[in-house]
Amino acid sequence: MKRTWLAAACTAALSLAMAIPAFAGQWQQNANGWWYSQDDGTYPSGGWYWIDQDLDKKAECYYFNQDGYCLMGLPAPDGGLTNASGAWIVNDVVQTQTVTAEVTKRNTFLGTYSGTYTASHGKGGIDIAIFETGDIQMAQINFYSLKRKDNIQEGSYLCQVKKLGTNTYELRADEWIYEPTGYSMLNWKLTLTDDVLEGHATSNSKYKLKVTKN
Fold this sequence. Notes:
The protein is mainly beta. The chain has helices at about 1-15, 100-105; strands at about 20, 25-30, 35-40, 45-50, 60-65, 80, 90, 95, 95-100, 110-120, 120-135, 135-145, 155-165, 170-180, 190-195, 195-200, 210-214. The protein has two domains: about 1-105, Cholin Binding (left handed beta-beta-3-solenoid); about 110-214, Calycin beta-barrel core domain (Lipocalin). The chain has two helices and 17 strands. The longest helix has 16 residues, at about 1-15.
C-alpha cells in the first residue's frame, strides 16, 4: 500500500513540474462547479495550472478536468491531492510557486507586439497593441517601411479581436486611424505561441505576419 502511494506521489510530482501558469482572470461558478475564466476568454482544462488568485505573487496549483472544472477535495488522475478549495496539497500543506514578472508577461495576450508583415506592397514593419475597452478586446495596427526602404506608406487602423480557439484569434478590421492612399485594411488570423503572434490575412494566405511581444 505504501509503495502504491509513493508511486502516485512521484507521478503527481512529475505532472506538476510541467504545470502551466494560467493567464490573469477570475473564478466563476455554475451548477457543475468552479472554473477559471482567463482575461483572453479561454479557461484552463485537462491538467494542472498555477494561479495567483489573490495577487500576492504566490501561485497555488489547481487541477482542471477536460471540461474546465476544478477538482476540489478530490485526487487528480495523476495521484495529486487537492483540498476543499481545489489547491494542490502535500501532507495537508498547500504548495505554492513564486510568480515572476516574466511568466506573467509570457502568458498574457494583451500588450504590445512588434515585427514584420508581407502583403501587396511588399515587406514592412508592423506594431500591434492589444487592449481592452469595457468587455471588448481591440487591436491597433500600425504599419510602415523598414529601415532603408520606402515601399510602404505609414498607416494605422483599429481591429476588433475575435477568439477562434485555444490561442487562435482573428483581428477584424474596424476603422482607419490614418489611411494612406490606395491601401485597404486587412483581417488577420493569428496564433499565439509563447510571446509570438503569427499568421496570415484571411483574404489571402500569402499575406503573412509575425510579431513578438515587447
